[in-house]
Design goal:
Helices cover 51% and strands 10% of the residues. It is built from 6 helices and 5 strands.
């Protein structure tokens, strides 16, 4: 079964800003007739930017897990929790469902994003035409789940605002949550920088 034609095969291209479909052009200074934005057949420097952002996110992921993200204070105790220790505390406190949700959003989802984006970038750089449709679905999956990684940041922010009763009890955000927030933003930017159309530039006709 032959693969469906690409926009390039049909002499068409789209604007990166307003998504208007226009006639294919190789002119370096071509602009969109609707919004005036520059027209590019592919995002300029897509792979380089995506790699840089992904590697930066991987570096920030280390302190995000090592440093505590939240401090819980009461009259009798003061506890600093990292992501993993916070998950363990939720489980021990009788909230296994919430612990699983936080573990999925804070550990599994970021790791999946690192693996999938790395795989997509390597496959494009190697000019692989293998399973292009499945790789495109993987990219859409990364886009879909990207925002859910912010769950830990939201939890800390909400607890800091609600659990604040002066000397009786309070929750304070710690540096770990900042690093984790940076990881989420960088992985989202990496996914946005990657041009999924590169996947189809070396496709096999059997796909």
């Amino acid at each position: 079964m032959n693969a469906p034609p690409r926009g390039r095969d049909l002499g068409l291209m789209s604007c990166h800003v307003c998504r208007l479909v226009t006639a294919w052009t190789e002119e370096p200074h071509a602009v969109c007739p609707r919004c005036g934005s520059p027209l590019h057949a592919r995002k300029t420097g897509s792979i380089t930017r995506a790699w840089a952002l992904l590697l930066a996110a991987a570096l920030f992921y280390i302190p995000a897990n090592v440093f505590p993200i939240m401090r819980t204070q009461s009259l009798s105790s003061k506890d600093d929790n990292t992501i993993l220790s916070g998950i363990v505390e939720l489980w021990r406190a009788g909230s296994p469902g919430l612990a699983v949700i936080v573990f999925t959003a804070s550990i599994i989802v970021p790791m999946l994003k690192f693996i999938i984006l790395g795989y997509l970038l390597v496959s494009v750089q190697r000019s692989s035409g293998f399973v292009s449709r499945q790789r495109t679905k993987l990219y859409r999956f990364v886009e879909l789940v990207g925002y859910w990684s912010m769950l830990d940041v939201f939890v800390v922010a909400i607890l800091s605002a609600l659990v604040h009763f002066k000397i009786l009890s309070r929750v304070e955000p710690l540096p770990g949550v900042v690093y984790f927030g940076v990881v989420v933003v960088l992985t989202m930017l990496s996914a946005m920088s990657f041009d999924p159309r590169l996947i189809w530039d070396n496709r096999k006709t059997s796909q």
